[in-house]
Structures are given as C-alpha cells and as structure tokens.
Amino acid sequence: MVVRSRLLLAGIALVLVAAAVIVFVVVSNRPSGGPTPSAAPPDDGAGLRITAFLGEQRIAPATTLAGTTFGGISGLDRDGDTWFLVSDDRSAKQPARFYTAGLAFGGPDGALSGVEVTGSHPFLRPDGAPYPPLAGGDGTTVDPEDIRVDPRTKQLVWSQEGERVLPTDGKPAVLIDPTVRIADRDGKFVRELPVLDDLKPTTGERGIRQNNGPEGLTFSADGEQILLAIEDPLLQDGPLPTRTTGAVTRIVVLSRDGRLRAQHAYPLEPLFADPTTSGAATTGITAILAEPDSPSRYLVLERSFAPGVGNKVRLYEIDLAGAADIGTGPIAAAAPVTKHLITDVGTLPVQSVDNIEGMTWGPDRPDGSHTLVLVSDDNFSPEQVTQFVAVAVRPA
Q1: Is residue 105 part of a domain?
Q2: 85 with 101: CB under 8 angstroms?
Q3: Which residues partner with 263 through β-bridges?
Q4: Which domain holds residue 321?
Q5: Which residues of 291-317 are buried (b: 16+ CB within 10 A; e: fewer)?
Q6: Are the beta carbons of 290 and 220 closer than 8 angstroms?
Q7: CB 3.0 to 4.6 Å from 130: which of 95, 120, 134, 209, for a disulfide?
Q8: 338: domain CATH number?
Q9: Residue 137 belongs to a domain
Q10: Cα end-to-end distance, the chain, whole Å
Q11: Residue 166 clears pLDDT 50, i.e. is over it
Q12: d(CA 30, CA 25)
C-alpha cells in the first residue's frame, strides 16, 4: 500500500503505516515560483558558491514505518535514484539501521519537490544478527553516524562513533572502538577496516570523547581514499571550543583497506552563543563530502548548538593541499587545512535550522551546477523534525 499526504505550505507530512514500502510526500516551505537566490554572504575565496535555494522538505517526528521509528538521520548518500539514510539509533528503539528513499526534483528549475522513504534495513553483525542495545548488550553495540556508497563496489560504507563511558558507582568502563564497516546493500556485514590507535577510547586522556568520534565519512573524488571527520578534539588534542576560543580536531585520510595515509588539523569555530537553559553548548564537524571536480577540496558541515538558543550550521569548503600531515604526532603545531565559509544555513529561506548532520550530492543540473542536499537528525525529539534542504552549487 502506498500512502500519500499533501499539506500545502505546511512543510510537514506524517504517514503512520505498517507496510513494507512506505512513501512520504512532503511539500516544501518554499513558495512556488522556482528556486530563490541564496542569502549567503560572499564566498571569502571559496571555490564553490551557492547559486539557488531549491527547497526544504520535512518529516514529522515519531513517524513510523515497517515497525521502526523514523528519525535520527545523521547521514545520507545517493546511487542513481536510490538514496540511503542512516539512523543513529543505537538499537535503543529498534535495531541499528538505514533507510532507502527517493528524493524528487521537479519542474524546470529542479526544486526539491518530495521525499519517499521506501524501506528500512537493519545493519547486521558478522553472525547475521542485528546489533544489540548498549544496555544489556554484549559490547558490540554501534552508534551509526554516516553512510556512503562505495563508488567502485556499490557496497555501503558506514561509520560509527563507538562509546566511552568511564567507570562510576562500581560499574565498569564501557569502551567501544569507533569503526568503519562495509555492508551489502541489504545490511549484511562484509568486513571492518582496522581501527586507528589514535581514536581508540581509553579511561585516560587519549582517544575519542564520548559521542564525539568519527561523525563524517566520505570517499575522495577518485575513490582511492576514505576520509573521516572527527566531530570534536580527541582527548590528546586539547580542550573543546569555548565562547572565546575555537579548538582543533582531525581529518583522517585512509586507504581503501584502512591504512593510515595522513591526518590533518581542522580548526573549529568558537561556540556561537551561551546556553539559556540547562545543558552544554557544542561545536563540531557533522559531515564531510568530496567535491566532484577537485582532488583536494571538500565540503564540511560545522554544527554549533546552544541549549535554549538553537543550532547554527555553517557550510565550509576546505582544501587539504598544503596542510601538514601530523601522522600520529601532536596536532597543536600542525599547519591546518585552509577553510572558507560558503554559507550559514540560517541565511537560507528555511523555516528554521534543525540539527543538520548529513549531506551529499543530488542530480547535476542542466546549467552545469550541482545539487547539494542536507539532512537533519531529529534526535527522536517531539520538538524537532527531519529536515531536507537542497541548494544549487557551482564554481565561483
């Protein structure tokens, strides 16, 4: 059964069904009449610029399909007409999983006109079982964060952050390595890449922080390398960002078989606001994406959140050319990647800026520009939504 729901200008569609194939059709908040120019500031020397806003689509929280709660979308990628969306549910609601979907770009201007979610697929362990939840699990639970289609094999490559919970109240530490895993397109386990020692969690001052591991994943433009973006500084790389100072995290470059090729310093921005309610403010990388026409340039999403204030999400272009390779040494003195602001997502004509964590390329446009699609993680919160934002991008 196919269910369709249209709400003109409302921007939200909610479909509650229990079928094997489910379709959401959501209508953009953007008024009709074609794409609108971006309100982005000048490129500050970036090689790419946004030329048009192509629309926004939203899926309401608590939408269910095929027995799962749709949400937590932290990454997406595309292979032809099939889109892959990874959920960061750590098997707390249902087994760790990804979704397949279709995104429609309609009309002569190619605006984002609809989203179809067509299936849900659990990631499977080597023994063929789904991953267990952390509570009561066997230590193999995962925290999926990004997903890419291997341009050569067409298998799925996905990253997960692992876990670092220090011992407390007599309970032992929980230390789970962050990993990059390869799966068939139905979620079956194929293999896992070696874990870089620098990233392994410890009870000391080394390795990933809790919930701040490899958040972004991409292939290089030629498909020869896999890059990981570490959300926030490793413990050995210094403190987290503050309101007055930024911080330094890492871009990790691996060969296709997981061997370390290079590590580069990435400068994070300071926090954009003080919290007005309880909770900690954060700034970190949520996604990285290779530019199709450059061997050394990448797009990076940097998300900053202040409780009670909201999200500030900025899209940067970085260039690895000229950046120092820190190897496995200290990061502080390394020449970082160059970084140029392309846009603050809040300057686009979106209804609001949610917790944007993923991005990938959509179909190329007749004028030679590229379609870039962003997606948000609703944290399975009733106060948030899954938000798709599309823009047109071309060389400056």
Answers
A1: no
A2: yes
A3: 252
A4: 36-53+142-395
A5: beebebbbbbbbbbbbeebbbbbbbbb
A6: yes
A7: 95
A8: 2.120.10
A9: no
A10: 46
A11: yes
A12: 15
